[in-house]
Amino acid sequence: MLVILSGVSGAGKDTIKKEIIKRMDNVISLPSFTSRNPREGEEEGVQYHFITREEFIERIKNDEFYEYDLHHNNYYGTSRKLMNEKIASGKIIIKDIEVNGTENLLKQLHNETKLVPIFLKVDREELKRRLINRGDNLTEEEMELRLGRLEYEESKIGLYDYVIKNDDLEKTVQIIMTIIENELRIEESKK
Ligand code: 5GP
Fold first, then answer.
1. Paired sense of beta strands 162-165 and 2-6, if any
2. What is the pTM of this model?
3. Around Cβ 92, how many Cβ atoms within 10 Å?
4. Residues of the chain scoring pLDDT < 70
5. What residue numbers bound the domain in which 130 lies?
6. Rg of the chain, C-alpha, whole Å
7. CATH number, residue 120
8. Quick one: which H or E segment has residue 70?
9. 3 state DSSP class of 60
10. CB 67 less than 6 A from any atom of ligand 1
11. Is the CB of 3 under 6 A from ligand 1?
């Protein structure tokens, strides 16, 4: 099973993902590949494998990604090899992916594994506050880019089975854990 978390940067996806992995034994993460630079505190291979733009383009040519997207001028992608290994392990994967990547994965993987796409909504003012507090030191232009993305991402909300307004971390974590447990039960009942 692959649980996909989407929503603009700053919607809280990373914190929620970490919390769920901590609390549920059968849930694991799947690092993406990216050409962006690591943020402070980010370690290679945990949330991301950090590679150069050239290397990323080479991997695209070699068809190494299930999907990839150019997002805020950086590439992000899901490795076929890593994804297949993790699916084969039988664990539940939780991964944050933006909307274009989700659309592509839904097309490609729906026959191979159960997909549970979840969209996290956050309102514009709250997002602005979070982006300022996160300490990325975004320029005004970068901030506008991120806020502008909100509308685009929300226009794709129809792709998702679940939409959650993330205004309370604990509540959101509890809801997602319940969704995962219910989806597992449904899968079991089909066997
Ligand atoms: P950030 O730079 O804030 O870590 O991530 C920017 C965006 O890239 C987020 O919306 C995140 O969900 C998305 N992202 C992370 N990994 C992937 C991936 O493998 N594929 C795609 N398409 N988007 C990703």
1. unpaired
2. 0.91
3. 23
4. 10
5. 2-190
6. 16
7. 3.40.50.300
8. strand 65-71
9. helix
10. yes
11. no
